[in-house]
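Data card: per-record layout.
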Amino acid sequence: MFLAHLRRPGPRGRRRPVLILVAAGVVAAGIAAAVVFSDFTETGLSGLDFTWPWSRKPEALDPKAPIDPARQYHLSVWDYELPFRSPGGAPFSDAARRAIERFERRYPNVKVDLTVLDPADGQAKLAEALQAGYPPDVYCSPFGPGAVGSDYQVPVGLYLDYDIWAGYDPVAWQTVKVEGTVWSYPRWLMLWPWLGNRELLAAAGVDTARVAAEGWTRDEFAAAIVALAGTGRQARPSVAATSPAVVLRDLLLPGHLAGETPQPADLYWLGAEPGAVALWLSELRDAGALAEDGRGTNPGVIDSFVHGRTSILVAPSPWATMFILEPVRRPPAWEFSLPPRDRPAMVLLPPPHAADQPSAVWVSAATVSVFRQARYKGDDHTRLAAELARELSVGTRPWLRDQPLCIPAAYSEQVSWRLRVGRYGQAGEFATGSLHRLAELPKDRLSLALSALTYGPRPPIPSDQPEPGDAGTGLEVRGKEPAGPRLTWGYLGPFLAETVAPAAADFWAGRTGPGDLVSELTEGILTGD
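The structure for this 529-residue chain is written out next.
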């Protein structure tokens, strides 16, 4: 099984925590939460023996290792500088600084160093640190995914108890859970909507309010494109995307959410769905509805949309959507031009789905991960790193207060988000409704779907770790030799970035047909073997 040695107990067997609810007035929701948490712990998330397969000593990692008050601990944190300011004008990195100050007050014998990364090269620096065997103790990422496939990553699920787990939105835990193991703390959730030109779509007879609230089928979407062509209102193709792989991912997600999920999960891919999606897209392409792709972050694709020449834009990331909606300052890479007047009204929409599938928007998490180093510093040091990671997972709300698509993972901060989200009109309604639909999915369905489309058929798995002092990538992929620093997937994850994206680009440009695309996608059978 994927990362099986991190899921299963050591020789001493499994210790299942018993959740005793003594309050006479426990509500049904509390009982349900306890049951779900019990399932989480059953798969190796808390209170279990955790044997390092590469360790010189046979002992299990102790999540409750005592902190030595006489020892001076030194922890390192990496976080990113993001284009957000608090109401008082503080930079985003101050969120981490304040969390560190709170932590150091709680543990006076702990010193924490903060390194602020540039989003342009932060993932490459982490890959290099992992290859050298000395990553930071705690790594905060706006990119994800939660599991990086390194021997050095420590699953934070080992440190969860019921009180901690119940303090976060269950949808957030699903985004960082891979085959039953919670790998990182979720910091906030990010929704990935499609953008529509309200006026153009209304001219084609599309009820955008209904679509935003309830979704639309692929047949309804195709009919809208045909109707739009008949209006004579648009000189360019209807659908623009800077990343065709994102389009495929979003179209495949509802099929995963609707499909039967084997227990234990040994097959994540739905056999016929890639073919149906590829054929549907090929029909749109043959009808001239697909605009040229942006070849990365080409602002020309976005310019076409914001100037009213394209009716649908599949943005490459939630950040790009935020930049288009203008709530945050754009970095130089996104210096597209918005018309000063007569700017088209924009509407957030879910991707289309088959008639028997749910409407769903892709969701990812900003994560906080814990790592050990080649020279292991002890269970007490690792426990402190895990506690620091939890501290860093909260406290960002002042910086994200005007971002309806960024939903705090911790309930303590999500309350303020829900109080403010109504101020953002359609964007706020869309975010609230999308989160509600994700929360209503059957247990673990979202986790399985996200894992399948993020990691694909060859998930990154920890390998046998070299002895301390030896350099090892810890980034090996099943069936492949290590190929140097990795983790440069951006928001897509390894499967879409490395396997699907090249095939999708060729298909989108008309160089290949649906059969070629399916041959790439159907390799995506993620098994636990």
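Known properties of this structure: Residues 1-59, 262-268, 459-485, 524-529 have pLDDT under 50 and may be disordered. Residues 69-189+364-455 form a domain with the D-Maltodextrin-Binding Protein; domain 2 fold (CATH 3.40.190.10).

See the next section for split statistics.
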